[in-house]
Amino acid sequence: MPNSPKYIGEPWIPHEMMDKLERMTKEHYRKCMEQRFKELVTKNGLEAAQAEVTDMDWESTFFLRHLPQSNISEFSDLDDDYRKLFKEFAKKLEELAEELLDLLCENLGLEKGYLKKAFHGTKGPNFGTKVANYPPCPKPELIKGLRAHTDAGGIILLFQDDKVSGLQLLKDDKWVDVPPMRHSIVVNLGDQIEVITNGKYKSVPHRVVTQTNGNRMSIASFYNPGNDAVIFQHRSW
């Protein structure tokens, strides 16, 4: 677990909820975001690129904040059913993230609740979701869907497309594919967990490579420390 993502499915997230969310997310992209993405590609001349593009990603995204205060009502192009479903899905993931924090404590020999308390600050943790689509790219050798990085926060819960691949992680200095798996949540750990555990759990570099066919969906939820939480290495190490 310290150096590679794990997959989680039921009983945390009902399969029918995941299927419906995937369907509605893809419908929303086609209806509300696809044309905007095409216009952005044309505006920036990405299809005509002759050299590697290092300052942009080939993705279409929006970000929903759940905690400490939701912003989902601000997105006027989300229909009511999609909004309601996303709230239910986010609540499931919030519960899962907190359970995982306690499991990390147990595995590390820390008192139960230590990590949740560390993340809390005075206003609670930050929790939000990046909804992304990675459309077909005519020049995948020149532009990444998402450039290589580590996640700055705590626990990352990824619900990704089960038909179109693209996610890779860096392992032993080589980029390794993370195969899509239906009805699963990929768990990754961010920089703040690495700090608290003094590297016992690693924040792994990862990226998204583009594909010439297929539109990849990614719903990545980030359970992070609150804005005023002070993160430091636990006294055990």
Q: In brief, what are we looking at here?
A:
This is Fe2OG dioxygenase domain-containing protein. By secondary structure, the chain is an alpha+beta fold.
Determine the CATH topology: Jelly Rolls
Radius of gyration: 18 Å
By DSSP (H or I, 4+ residues per run), the number of helices equals: 4
Give a quick account of the main beta sheet: strands, pairing sense, barrel closure.
6 strands, antiparallel
Distance between the ends: 19 Å
Number of strands: 10
GO molecular function: metal ion binding; oxidoreductase activity
Protein name: Fe2OG dioxygenase domain-containing protein
Keywords: Iron, Metal-binding, Oxidoreductase
Pfam families: 2OG-FeII_Oxy
Report on the structure:
Residues 125-225 form the Fe2OG dioxygenase domain. The protein has 237 residues and is an alpha+beta fold. The chain has one domain: B-lactam Antibiotic, Isopenicillin N Synthase, Chain (Jelly Rolls, Sandwich). The protein is built from 4 helices and 10 strands; from the N terminus they run βαβααββββββαββ. The chain has helices at residues 15-43, 80-108, 114-120, 191-196, and strands at residues 6-8, 60-67, 126-134, 146-149, 155-160, 167-171, 174-177, 185-189, 206-208, 216-224. A 6-stranded antiparallel sheet has the order 1-8-5-10-3-2. A 4-stranded antiparallel sheet has the order 4-9-6-7, with no helix packed on it. β6 (167-171) and β7 (174-177) form a beta hairpin. α1 packs across α2 (80-108). The model has no long low-confidence stretch (mean pLDDT 94).
